[in-house]
What we know:
four-stranded mixed beta sheet, Rossmann fold, alpha/beta, 2 domains, 14% strand
Amino acid sequence: MVREITRALYHLYGIEGKVYGIVGGYKGFYDPKTPPILLTPQNVENIHHEGGTILSSSRGGFDIDKICKFIKSKKIKQLYVIGGDGTHRGAFKIHETCMERGLNVSVAGIPKTIDNDVDYLDRSFGFITSVEAAQAAIRAAKVEASCNLPNGIGIVKLMGRSSGFIAAHATLGSGDVDLCLVPEVPIVLEGTTGCLPHLWNRVKKKGYAVVVVAEGAGEELLGASTETDASGNKKLPQIGEFMKTKINEYFKEQGENATVKYIDPSYMIRSVPANATDTLYCMQLGQNAVHAAFAGYTGFSVGLCNNKMCLLPIPELVATSPRQMNPKGRTWERILAVTRQPNTREISRRSLLMND
């Protein structure tokens, strides 16, 4: 994204001014430890072949007065903000404040979330790459499970705080998964719809099983944390370790041992270079944002909607974000068909808590 925005500014519009890259999120506008860097076509030429970002990232640090002071002192005319729903809310606050203070600044957002949970978009950039990267972890889990006796089971925990898009699409892309657990569908451990009896049956039928679990799944079992990070996101329970323990306990109750291997690729799946699909998508998003800013729009974000590049009002974009996967939709139905796991979507969290 950084590369394509910079190249569009210089090559498509021939700007003569400077392009600043803010380092470390909103705090980079004013923190002397992370001064802005100048972006040119030369120093961004090859960054799309690398993972991560040359601008670094950070949570928190939003100070509207200090941000506007920077904008005014540097005579900024266009501001491109790349981030998720929280970052977009900050971008819209900058837009509103600039309007109030008479600063002629176009504020453009580009949705960035590896979880694919910004609403209205077909997908967020990087999502396809992360699903592709997750395949290596799933294949490793399958090898570990199939080669370890007795009763080998491989667990892979993937990112997905509020939504299970990565876990679901990685499961479908793999075809080797026997159980997929996501935040949108309650986890039932035992009984006729229990995931533990399902795993037992799968292991007994083919000798091993593979489990994919999203990091935000299982809150109805482990409870919601009251702790939050710098951006106000609640800390997540350790669902992967919890499932490993419960699987071991269940197999022991059946008079046997399980050999459970737990793999947590987590940030590894978002730290790889973008694949060709996401590289092309970033070019389209970056150019669309620049075109819209030069056309005089502000307070907007860009995205692919129904396979069309669109401009979206930021308040509308964040009003229903983060979005969740539809547990009654086609994606979840395909998960059930691939894994053959019991469907627990109709079981409410309230009934689970009452049963406990």
